[in-house]
Design a protein that fits this description.
It is built from five helices and six strands; from the N terminus they run H-H-E-H-H-E-E-E-E-H-E. With 148 residues, it is of the alpha+beta class. A three-stranded antiparallel β-sheet has the order 1-3-2. Strand 4 (100-105) and strand 5 (111-118) form a beta hairpin. Helix 2 crosses helix 4.
Length: 148
């Protein structure tokens, strides 16, 4: 179950419905975690989500379990962009698997989504099965505007 990223944030009731539609219980922690991801402009690390939810009293383990639950249910995606740190973001119906690219700054390590950038992957003989099944992540590296 994927969601469509919207300009307007979803209400708490809409988030609850989305989580329940994915066959998960809509606990306060899951709702808060979903909303933290929905409000983010770029993928968040576990630590960044913990920091955003600190005022609500959720501990690190609960936030991590909620991130994994949302990912396993297909509501969120996690990716390692080469630094061995998982980053989480909501799935978007407009982004087919393998078509959502990220930009990683080689100086500051900042990560941002590349809106409007679409990547088409075509398998060729001898390529790994992950490429043909489009289970790959696309990333561009360089210097961000702040670092260049």
């Amino acid at each position: 179950m994927a969601t469509k990223k919207l300009e307007q944030p979803l209400s708490r009731d809409e988030v609850r419905t989305c989580i329940r539609d994915a066959k998960l219980r809509a606990t306060p922690g899951r709702i808060a975690t979903y909303q933290a991801l929905a409000q983010a402009a770029s993928p968040l690390t576990h630590g960044e989500v913990v920091a955003r939810l600190a005022s609500f009293g959720f501990d690190r383990a609960t936030v991590y379990r909620n991130l994994i639950d949302l990912t396993d249910a297909g509501l969120a995606a996690r990716s390692d962009l080469g630094d061995h740190v998982w980053r989480f973001e909501l799935n978007d119906l407009d982004d087919p698997p393998g078509g959502h690219a990220h930009f990683v700054c080689v100086d500051c390590g900042g990560v941002s989504c590349l809106p409007g950038v679409r990547v088409s992957i075509t398998a060729a003989p001898g390529m790994p099965r992950a490429v043909s099944s489009k289970q790959v992540a696309v990333q561009l590296k360089g210097r961000c505007d702040s670092c260049s």
